Structure formats: C-alpha cells, structure tokens
Amino acid sequence: xxxxxxxxxxxxxxxxxxxxxxxxxxxxxxxxxxxxxxxxxxxxxxxxxxxxxxxxxxxxxxxxxxxxxxxxxxxxxxxxxxxxxxxxxxxxxxxxxxxxxxxxxxxxxxxxxxxxxxxxxxxxxxxxxxxxxxxxxxxxxxxxxxxxxxxxxxxxxxxxxxxxxxxxxxxxxxxxxxxxxxxxxxxxxxxxxxxxxxxxxxxxxxxxxxxxxxxxxxxxxxxxxxxxxxxxxxxxxxxxxxxxxxxxxxxxxxxxxxxxxxxxxxxxxxxxxxxxxxxxxxxxxxxxxxxxxxxxxxxxxxxxxxxxxxxxxxxxxxxxxxxxxxxxxxxxxxxxxx
Length: 338
What we know:
Blueprint: H1 28-50, E1 57-62, E2 66-68, E3 81-89, E4 95-107, E5 126-133, E6 141-144, E7 150-159, E8 163-171, H2 173-176, E9 181-194, E10 212-230, E11 233-248, H3 251-258, E12 261-279, E13 282-293, E14 298-301, H4 317-320, E15 327-337
Antiparallel strand pairs: 1-2, 1-6, 2-5, 3-4, 3-6, 4-5, 7-8, 7-15, 8-9, 9-10, 10-11, 11-12, 12-13, 12-14, 13-15
C-alpha cells in the first residue's frame, strides 16, 4: 500500500518452524505472525551482509577502552565483528576509506531508551576489543561486518593424542555474553609402531607384536577462553574431554587379537594456545595440552551390530602405547575464520 516507488535491491531466503503445547495454544493468526517475525529475524543477517547500506556505521568514540554509541537498539551482540576505517586522501586529492583494524563487541549497552546518538552517557556506549590491525584513534568509523564466528584449525601434534588434527571452534558470545568463549570439537589420526608383547592380557609374547603397526584416531570436545593481549596476538586456555581408539594396521593381527574391536581410552585435557595473525581471519596457532587417561583402557566394537562385550585389559592406555596418554601434546597449525 506504499504510495512511493520501491526499487528491488536483493533477496534472501530462510526456513522457520514453530511448535506449541496444547496447554498454551495460540490462535492460528498469532502463530503465523510469530513465524513471519522469526523469518524476518533470520533474514536480517543475510541482508546486512549483502547490502552495504543496511550495515551499522558509527564513529569510534574512545580508544581506551574502545567504545561506540551502538548497542541493543542496533541488535549488537557480544563478539559481533566490526571493521574500523580511517578516511585518507591520495596524491590526487581523492578521499578513500582504509581499514585500520578489526574489533569485536565486549560489552553491549542497552540503548533502547536513548532518543538520539548525541548523548555522551557511558551507559549508552558499548565496549569492544581489538582482534587485528593497527593502532586505532577516536573519530575513525566502525562498519558492521557479519561473520559466522567459526574457526577451522588444521594442524599436526606430537606427543599424547599426536597426529594430523582438525578442530572446529565456535564463538558463544551471542548466547553466553562472554567474549572469546568458544566451544570446539576436534579429531585426529596418526600411525605408529609399538612393542605390545605381554603388555596386557590381550597380547602374548608374539614376535609379530614386537613392532606392531597401529592406527590411531580420536575425537574430543571442550571449551576455551581467549584473551587478546596485543592487536594481533592472543592467548587462550582450554579444557577438553575425548577418546582415542587404536587398531592394528595389519588386518590379520586385528582379527587374531581384537576380533572386530578396537582398544580405546577416555581422556581429559587442559592446556593453553597462542595465536598470531597473518591476516585478520588467518592465524598461526601453537598449543600445549596435557592429556590424562581416565581409567584403564577398554575395547569397543567397530560396528554397531557387533558384540560390544569388553575384553578384560586391566592396563592403562599409556602402558600399551607409551606417550599417547598421561603426557603432553605440542601442536602447530593454521586457523581460518569464517
């Protein structure tokens, strides 16, 4: 019913669903209205990414700490990413904007009752922390730059739980309101030779077990809390819980001793990680983690339809595979942020 002209700019799509309990049933009209509003909320992020004019822009109000006059009214959440630009002039007297840094929201101000952006009330300004770039100054301007808040690390580790590894991290600030609190899942794979003769009740003094070739694979999940000490350098501490499985590379040995099972252990880990920027969304990563085996090693069936009755091992995983548990892991890799 608009009496002014509209111009098509962009399109996006989203899927939403709704459910209700019989005890709190709402009318079909209200339920449909809720679905429409939820779909619009889901589309906002897509439109803000596609259409530059829909991105939030504002001036950097202060440097120590980093503050800006935006908040809940602009749908700001903890860990939301913003690029910081500075206007410059080239030798042809042409003005252009140059990106000077990347920041994320640290503490979101509730500015829904602020009538205008002219107030200097500290309560109406959100605080930020810098994750990349150069030194910033008051008067530079912020521009919204939505991201997924997801990082993927490809690396290799030596020591406990060693091998090629893949880790996927996700920022949780929009839910927990804690900056740089991440949830992660990870997996690794490795190969090695071990002397398994008479190490436990499963194995005998068999010459084939003197240099048994093994394949190891594992998975873990956990949480980390990061701190940006410098513009392009950060440290984080992490806790993890996971498991590792071991099997013979030789299928005949596997059938003879493990009978369609694998040797496994549960582990808990704690450590620190350092990251240095190559770009704002690309870092070199180094980490040190100590993994402790949780109880004795045990066996698990390879297939769901196999008998999962455990063999009695009565040995620690580290007794079987020296250094793969109850030891430290040093890992290096590259993280890409999306």
